[in-house]
Amino acid sequence: MNAAISPAVVKPANCSDEEWALRIQLAECYHLVDYFGWTETIFNHISARLPGGDNYYLVNPFGLNYTEVTPANLLKVDLQGNKVEPSPYDANPAGFALHSAIHGAREDIHCVIHTHTNAVSAVANKKAGFSHDNFYGAQLYGRVGYHTFEGITLFAEEKVRMLASLGDKHILVLRNHGVAVGEMDIAKTFFLLWTVQRAAEIQCHAGMIPGEDNPLPAEIGQKCADLTQMLIRDSGFAVKFFDAMVRKMRAARGALW
User: Fold this and answer.
1) For 180, which DSSP code?
2) Model confidence over 128-155: pLDDT tens digits?
3) Which domain of life is it from (predicted)?
4) H or E segment to which residue 239 belongs
5) Where do the domains of the chain lie?
6) How far apart are CA 30 and CA 197, in angstroms?
7) pLDDT class of 2 with cuts at 50, 70, 90
8) Which residues, in sequence order, are bridge partners of residue 48?
9) Which top CATH class is 17-253?
10) 69, CA 20 to 30 Å: which among 57, 60, 88, 197?
11) What CA–CA distance (Å, rounded) separates 252 from 66?
12) Which residues contact 145 (CB under 8 A, 6 or more apart)?
């Protein structure tokens, strides 16, 4: 091995090119969430489904900061959050409960990100949930499910109710808690999270200003949501956005690992 190359970016011999590319992108996603200030110290997860029919996923080692996640130290786990390959790091099966519920039931969701930023948690604490009266909130029209808070998400028996709350949507607001978003790949999921975060921030700021919000008709909200979905689905928009954010982060921080 070239001593100048960090082991964190050298593909192990038993790792396929496809899995390694996914590991790199997922590690970048962890660093992006930290870069944007959306982390919750060592808690929460970003998970990505591995190709193949084994129902294996990549997730962060419990106890590491998001900035310490690398392509090499990501854990390969099953739907219960148990490690399926040796690693010096521990998994956190309890914290994977939310992710495993979504991954196990939704073939159209290959990546799940869970956050509880200040803005998202504030909206999750409000009975009305997300407003669709701002530019970003309108893009979420018809895409948000709500799940009643049952305490810290640790127990498998809650999975059925979480899935019922999510339905066929891609955003699950965990009331009094935070949010989980999921899409077909990492880039699309990150863009969806960014949109959710912006919607929450604008809603919180608008609530600080006296006076009524200017309501948008439901048909405008639906139009915005449909157009956004068409853009994400039929073009490389999400990848362009993700890659641009990675370049921005690298320019600010330098090498990631």
Assistant:
1) E
2) 999 999 999 999 999 999 999 987 766 6
3) Bacteria
4) helix 237-253
5) 17-253
6) 16
7) very low
8) 58, 111
9) alpha beta
10) 197
11) 16
12) 165, 166, 167, 169, 171, 172, 173
Residues 6+ apart with CB under 8 A from 8: 70, 71, 72, 73, 257
Enter the tokens of residue 68: 């310490």
* Tens digits of residue pLDDT in 214-257: 999 999 999 999 999 988 887 799 999 999 999 999 999 999 99
**CA distances to 50, 233, 250 from 109, in Å:** 12, 13, 28
Structure tokens, 144? 């948000």
**33 residue type, one letter:** V
For residues 43 and 179, give the distance between their C-alpha atoms in angstroms, rounded to a whole number: 14
**How does the average pLDDT of the chain come out, rounded?**
93
pLDDT level of residue 3 (50, 70, 90 thresholds): very low
Residue 157's region, left for phi above 0, alpha for psi from -120 to 50, else beta, is alpha
Type of residue found at 57: Y
